[in-house]
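User: quick one, sequence for these tokens?
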């Protein structure tokens, strides 16, 4: 059994309140501009911020750094074949590298690409290749309170309507993101995956699963879907992907690694084309921008990601955080998804209009109050899209303890208690590309 030998993310010391206030101001009231040493508990993302196991570290020590034909690549290929069922693998430096490689081979100018919901890098890569990314979530996705089991699902009727609108020949691929990161990490059912397979056949399109959180998704399938209650998580995880023609993966999520990614395909011709494209953008097709040790770590991580003990602790911890927040009176998206708890900042600060970024105000208050760093995913991050004013508190994998969750709950409770006094923010400076402003813009309180 594995244990964890290293903790990452943030400092072990909570800075004094005045010091936090000073650093927040220096950071332009933007959490991305804080140093990790300014942060006590870092919930900015679950991407690459987790703790590796002793087995992963041991594998890294024995990694093969050969340019071509590295044994660590073979170990990764074997893990992907065993855990995910794909024999043809193109390694990449991380998930977006995989998206660039695969979508560059599948999508052409004028194409239309449906997805349950495009994650931001997915949207950008579809658009960059001339495609029009269209979100087709189920109705319940937009209802923050509905207790439906699979709010991450794609709506096949919306995709059919789209196809009859634009013509099926303009849809080269149907994408499905499991879990659905842009819809609060909500899961997708096995039934919905099967329906999407049928849909792709109907449209003569390639069925691509964005598998970043395939293991977390499997946990929900077992818990909530008829016929899966007694099945092994590893088996369910594999069955999900068995329906897809291709997968893109970020090793920074359910690869339990700090970096890395890959494409998996079934078609030999598509395999050749993705390999060629990967050489251009990522590296030779047996390392793809990863060091041998990165591949070695991911090979072990993928196998750990589908184990009982790991997954139930992981999903259980995210739920525990959700429960604590709810008890503290914090309005959250329900049910709680796989990797994060999403807070409805619009309801926390009804006095702050969307133009004054209630989500970003909440991000600042959580830092001010308890050194906790979350991220805004509302009007500040996605201008002009009229999304709910959500703040994501993502839990790094295998990193925090129950005392940390306690601190987060108390911090959020204190923020709620004086929520009426909280003011909004305005932008002082922002980058040219508005779509990327939440990474670097500077703000000030109004
Ligand atoms: C993180 C993520 C990606 C991109 O992966 P990176 O490793 O960050 O480049 C793609 N899709 C989804 C659903 C993700 O969560």
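Assistant:
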């Amino acid at each position: 059994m594995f244990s964890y030998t290293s903790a990452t993310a943030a400092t072990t010391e909570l800075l004094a309140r005045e010091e936090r206030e000073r650093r927040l101001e220096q950071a332009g009231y933007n959490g991305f501009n804080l140093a990790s040493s300014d942060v006590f508990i870092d919930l900015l993302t679950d991407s690459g911020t987790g703790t590796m196991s002793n087995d992963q570290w041991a594998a890294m020590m024995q990694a093969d750094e050969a340019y071509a034909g590295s044994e660590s690549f073979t170990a990764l290929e074997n893990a992907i074949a065993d855990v995910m069922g794909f024999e043809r693998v193109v390694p990449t430096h991380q998930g977006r590298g995989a998206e660039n490689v695969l979508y560059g081979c599948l999508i052409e100018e004028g194409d239309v690409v449906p997805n349950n919901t495009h994650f931001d890098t997915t949207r950008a890569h579809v658009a960059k290749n001339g495609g029009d990314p269209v979100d087709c979530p189920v109705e319940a996705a937009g209802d923050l309170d509905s207790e439906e089991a699979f709010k991450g699902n794609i709506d096949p009727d919306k995709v059919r309507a789209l196809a009859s609108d634009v013509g099926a020949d303009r849809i080269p691929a149907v994408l499905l993101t499991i879990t659905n990161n842009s819809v609060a990490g909500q899961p997708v059912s096995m039934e919905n995956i099967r329906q999407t397979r049928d849909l792709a056949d109907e449209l003569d399109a390639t069925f691509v699963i964005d598998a970043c959180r395939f293991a977390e998704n499997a946990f929900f399938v077992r818990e909530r879907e008829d016929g899966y209650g007694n099945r092994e998580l590893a088996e369910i995880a594999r069955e999900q992907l068995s329906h897809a023609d291709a997968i893109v993966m970020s090793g920074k999520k359910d690869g339990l690694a700090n970096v890395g990614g890959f494409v998996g395909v079934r078609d030999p011709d598509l395999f050749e084309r993705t390999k060629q494209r990967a050489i251009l953008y990522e590296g030779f097709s047996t390392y793809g921008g990863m060091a041998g040790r990165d591949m070695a770590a991911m090979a072990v991580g993928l196998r750990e990601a589908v184990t009982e003990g790991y997954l139930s602790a992981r999903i259980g911890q995210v739920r525990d955080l959700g429960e604590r927040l709810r008890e503290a009176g914090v309005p959250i998206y329900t049910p709680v998804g796989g990797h994060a708890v999403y807070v409805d900042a619009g309801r926390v600060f009804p006095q702050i209009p969307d133009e004054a970024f209630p989500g970003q105000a909440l991000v600042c208050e959580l830092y001010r109050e308890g050194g906790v760093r979350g991220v805004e995913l509302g009007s500040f991050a996605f201008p002009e899209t009229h999304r709910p004013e959500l703040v994501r508190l993502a839990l790094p994998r295998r990193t925090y303890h129950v005392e940390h969750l306690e601190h987060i709950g108390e911090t959020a409770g204190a923020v709620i208690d004086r929520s009426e006094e909280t003011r909004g923010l305005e932008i002082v400076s922002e980058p040219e590309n508005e779509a990327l402003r939440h990474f670097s813009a500077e703000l000030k309180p109004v």
